[in-house]
Amino acid sequence: xxxxxxxxxxxxxxxxxxxxxxxxxxxxxxxxxxxxxxxxxxxxxxxxxxxxxxxxxxxxxxxxxxxxxxxxxxxxxxxxxxxxxxxxxxxxxxxxxxxxxxxxxxxxxxxxxxxxxxxxxxxxxxxxxxxxxxxxxxxxxxxxxxxxxxxxxxxxxxxxxxxxxxxxxxxxxxxxxxxxxxxxxxxxxxxxxxxxxxxxxxxxxxxxxxxxxxxxxxxxxxxxxxxxxxxxxxxxxxxxxxxxxxxxxxxxxxxxxxxxxxxxxxxxxxxxxxxxxxxxxxxxxxxxxxxxxxxxxxxxxxxxxxxxxxxxxxxxxxxxxxxxxxxxxxxxxxxxxxxxxxxxxxxxxxxxxxxxxxxxxxxxxxxxxxxxxxxxxxxxxxxxxxxxxxxxxxxxxxxxxxxxxxxxxxxxxxxxxxxxxxxxxxxxxxxxxxxxxxxxxxxxxxxxxxx
Length: 451
What we know:
Layout: H1 3-34, E1 41-48, E2 54-58, H2 70-82, E3 89-94, E4 100-103, H3 112-125, E5 133-136, E6 171-177, E7 186-189, E8 196-203, E9 208-213, E10 221-228, E11 232-237, H4 241-255, E12 264-266, E13 274-280, H5 284-294, H6 297-312, H7 318-328, H8 354-365, H9 370-374, E14 396-403, E15 406-414, E16 420-428, H10 435-449
Helix pairs in contact: 1-10, 2-5, 2-6, 3-4, 5-6, 6-7
């Protein structure tokens, strides 16, 4: 080879390596400037989504908690398997004895209004005297709480229990009003589902409500503590899902003016029944968008079990969902493999690496319907990104993740260079607010945008 050509190639190579090292230093300086690296654990991976080429890595093989960022990967797999047009179908069957079977579908969006409309249609189209109403919940299992979830989160409206008996998001609304004459503030449960509420509230100069539940004493008793200044409504996840579903079903039957001769039962549907009516949910892409933009845990877990049911051709379970997840991503070749315990990322047992996450993002990018899926992800001004990265709002699609001491951001950046980058930023083990962690995430994403 001509010595001048060799020199030219060497010069180009050295220039590229110098630029790469300089680029890495820019990212390093951003991390060091935040000072979080002194006490917290930070892991970063940035890769070209088309070529897989690494732009930047930092502690990329450390196992950390993904928090709700896991939803991006569980929902991408579910979306690919089920299809964006998949719909849940809650169905009514009838047997020759006029027993009505309500076959549940695992629809996370089902409401009392949906049931009411279904039975109103039954009333108008079929002039029958209903005997028993039998609920068939066998589509998914009745395990209602994730492995590795924190027990003291069971009063959080963001972490309701989930089961085939899901209705109204498994949440009840409780209205509160301050008292006028130094008596106890007023508490009103707006739901037909009744619980015991111990009123320990006081009038105060601000609304500062604490909800305390002691399930080892009584599962449906809550203590409301703190102060109240103005009227407000608090949302409380319910504990007894089957009882609540039956209560809502009774309400729907009453509104539809149907009075069964028999009783409401729970049992698998019998043979020799006829499908007569069904309630159809909104398409899956609408539901997945709610998961990715608003980080809805209930929806994520129900969709995860639905995916497991289709994959295993049996009842939907978290275990089947995990098997489906691992099978979907089995072709990813990294040093580490994710360890997951749920579909939402709420579990403290979930462990993942930034390197695996960017490889998974690149796999998702190569899917045939990537454009459709990417539109379901949050961009700045939407959902959990509503007040972040607004300066590059048209160039980012991402999923956040936040639990105590953990902050995660992962997704895609369309850079100035017209390159598309996948990125994963995990920050863990900080004792204070997540604000500094999120500032660091945003600074890194802004730097990716300049590449």
